[in-house]
Amino acid sequence: MSNTRVSTVAKPPGRRASDVNRSRLADLTRPIARDQRITRTRRPAIAAGLAGLIVVVTIGTALFGLPVRTWFGQDDELVHLEAELAELESINAELSDEVSRLQTPAGITEAARDILGQIKMGERRQTVLGVPEIPTDLPDGWPYSAVERMITLRAEEP
Asked: Lowest CB count within 10 Å: 30, 119, 133, 158, which one?
C-alpha cells in the first residue's frame, strides 16, 4: 500500500446530483415562494430602491456637481483678480516713479514747499483761498429768481 492520503470535499448542502451541469445563478433567478419572501408586496422594495437612488444621486451631486460649479466660479474670480492685479501693478509703477522723482534734490525741494510750506530766504508766503461755491438751490420768488439768472450768466462766462 502507498502512503498517499485522500481528502474529500463535502458537497454543498441542498445540491442534488441532477444539478451537476446547471448554473448556480438559476437559484437566484427562480421565483421565490410568497411565504419565503421578505416582503409580501413590491411597494416597500420600490420605495427602498427610490430612496437608495436619491441617496446615490445626492452623493454624486455632492462629489461631482458642486466641485465643478465651484471650479467654473473660480475661473470668473481668477479673471477678476487678474484685472485687480494689473490695476495694482500700474498704481505701484506710478508710486515708484513718484518716489524716484522725489529722491532728487528738485523733488525734495518741491515736496518741502508743497507739504511743509517751506519758503526760501526773502520770499513772502501768501495764502489764497478759492472762491466758495455759491448755492444754486435758492427758494422760488422775486429776489431769488434774479439772483439765479445772474449765477447762470456768470457760470456761462469763460
From this structure: 158
- Identify the CA nearest to 136 among candidates 149, 154, 150, 148: 148
The distance from CA 52 to its chain's CA centroid, rounded to whole angstroms, is 32
Residue pLDDT, tens place only, 108-143: 998 888 888 888 888 888 888 888 877 667 787 778
Radius of gyration of the chain (CA): 47
CA–CA dist 99, 117 (Å, integer): 20
Inter-CA distances, 37 with 13, 29, 150, Å: 21, 14, 101
Rounded CA-CA distance 56/58 in Å is: 5
Q: Residue 4 carries which DSSP code?
A: -
Dump pLDDT digits (tens) for 17-72.
666 666 666 566 677 777 777 777 778 888 889 999 999 999 988 888 888 888 88
Distance CA 131, CA 134 (A): 9
